[in-house]
Amino acid sequence: MELVELPVPQAKANEAVVKLAASGVNFVDVYYREGRYKAPLPFVPGQEGAGVVSAIGAEVKSVKVGDRVAWSGLLGSYAEYEAVPADRLVPIPKGVSDQQAAATMLQGMTAQYLSYSTYPLKKGETALVHAAAGGVGLLLVQMAHNIGARVIATVSTEEKARLAREAGADEVILYTQADFDTETKRLTDGEGVDVVYDSVGKTTFEKGLNVLRPRGMMVLFGGSSGAAPPFDPIVLLQKGSIYLTRPTLVNYIATREELVTRSSAVFAMITAGKLKLRIDHTYPLAEAQRSHRELEARQTTGKLLLIP
Amino acid sequence: MKAIRVQHTGGPEVMELEEVPVRPPKPAEAVVKVSVAGVNAADGYFRDGRFRTPLPFIPGQEGAGVVTAVGDQAKTVKVGDRVAWSGVLGSYAEFVMSPEEHLVPVPEAISDEQAAAAMVHGLTAHYLVNDAHKLKRGETALVHAAAGGVGLLLVQMARAIGARVIGTVSSEEKAQLAREAGADEVIVFTRQDFEPEVKRLTDGKGVEVVYDGVGKATFEKNLNVMRLRGMLVLYGMSSGSVLPVDPARLLEKGSLYMARTTLAHFTAAREELLARTSALFGMIAEGKLKVRIAITYPLADAGLAHRDMEARKIGGKLLLIP
What we know:
The complex is a heterodimer of chains A (308) and B (322). Chain A has ten helices and 13 strands. With 308 residues, chain A is α/β, with parallel strands linked by helices. In chain A, the strands form two sheets. In chain A, strands 1, 2, 3, 4, 5, 12 and 13 form a seven-stranded mixed beta sheet that branches. A six-stranded parallel beta sheet of chain A has the order 8-7-6-9-10-11, with helices on both faces. Chain B folds into two domains: 2-119 and 291-321, Medium-chain alcohol dehydrogenases, catalytic domain (Quinone Oxidoreductase, Chain A, domain 1, Alpha-Beta Complex), CATH 3.90.180.10; 137-260, NAD(P)-binding Rossmann-like Domain (Rossmann fold, 3-Layer(aba) Sandwich). Chain B contains nine helices and 15 strands. The longest helix of chain B has 21 residues, at 112-132. The interface between A and B is medium-sized, with 28 and 27 residues.
């Protein structure tokens, strides 16, 4: 990743050009950089940002020059300017800063769809959240807690345990010291949890199936330890007629209506003070390399942003 | 008493009618004189050894009859009660010993045949549309084996909810049965590939839910006919077990869900069993659910019943009369 000079993009008929105020750093950016996810070369990385509309195409009606907007899911946000299809832009309300907006588009909407749509959590249910001090984890714990669910969190260090507790986790398991499988069973009197939210994948998937109550749901939404391996579906029966889903954000913001509803729901939590964002690491755009190194080394907590 | 016994696992011929002693009930058991026993796919899996149980054993897990004796701790049933059950191995017999919590009362309006025929297939269809995936009015469901024992009941229940039903069947004759049960569209899969047909019938969008008791033969194509975030409910494997699944496939095909369910997990609590059964019997008594009893065989012909079941030519329920 090198900082270069490029022409400012021109808006096509359905696009708006946005001057970026902040760009979010996500694990998916690493996958594109490495080539695990493919994009034609050369490319500008980054999938998430917030800023101000500086120009619009001839057919654009939903935004105008000067509007504060945010977006996710389009390559090219590690830059001063990006041309974005106008129907992918969502308005940022007054009580939400550009940095907050950039920080929540992927992780905030992910936590929102996981807890409200993929498995609509209910008051009194119990959720197991892996990597609870990670970017999505801290937001998911807060949302689950606000819904009134009991949250059992897994983390790797004491420091992360503290963060998870602050976010509202009822129980925190240091998986480096205790087996989460045994601990979760103990904490639920052997009954198991209603849902497991798992972004870790390979190292947690199979054990996660053991801690679900009958007819519970495994929500596998990432693979930070590697991809979860193929499994025999009969295992789902043996573990108690349980469900598995493997969701991803794009399928939960596929229509303009759903995108706007979901982003508005997250912004409303922020303005109401119900969702605390941890923006602990901001880097100048030129230091994108350092941001990736620190993210990959798992030295960071909360959200990483690049400021162009 | 007379009973079918399996001494070693194998084909239908391993089921032989024998004279077996009736043992007294344990404290929380009842002895039931079986008037009708239901024949289910699972009975074949126990018989051929795919499902394991200690040998020798009496097959069959479903039936209806009258209580003739109770253990000294039994509280919920008494001698003379008409009852039905599922999940009690040993039903291919004149008498069955059942834990009392598996027995449900049969209302007057329901015959023994109807009760025995409805327990496994009817309760299965009921949990599939109400719990495994809570089917809603206006949704589209793909029902494989729509003229099978579960299929015919599932189609009727889905239609009663107001869902659109696309059924798959193997023959014209079965297509007729599925249509009579209320299927909006029927695909004869031996003549037409169900994948392009389902896509065509849903304007390329796919269905909200697939109910699949077939397994291996339909799995891959199912993933291609579901709408975004759709649900695949696997509840059987009449064509063989589904091969291992890479979870990433569910993502690639649109953040899909899958479940592999079985009735026991949807009737585990006594209250749930009773609520589900009374809902089911209520639908039958009101004429909203037709249970199609295809053939009744004498108990001695259990082997023939299994042959007919495994040939998959018959639509509806097979029963044994001891």
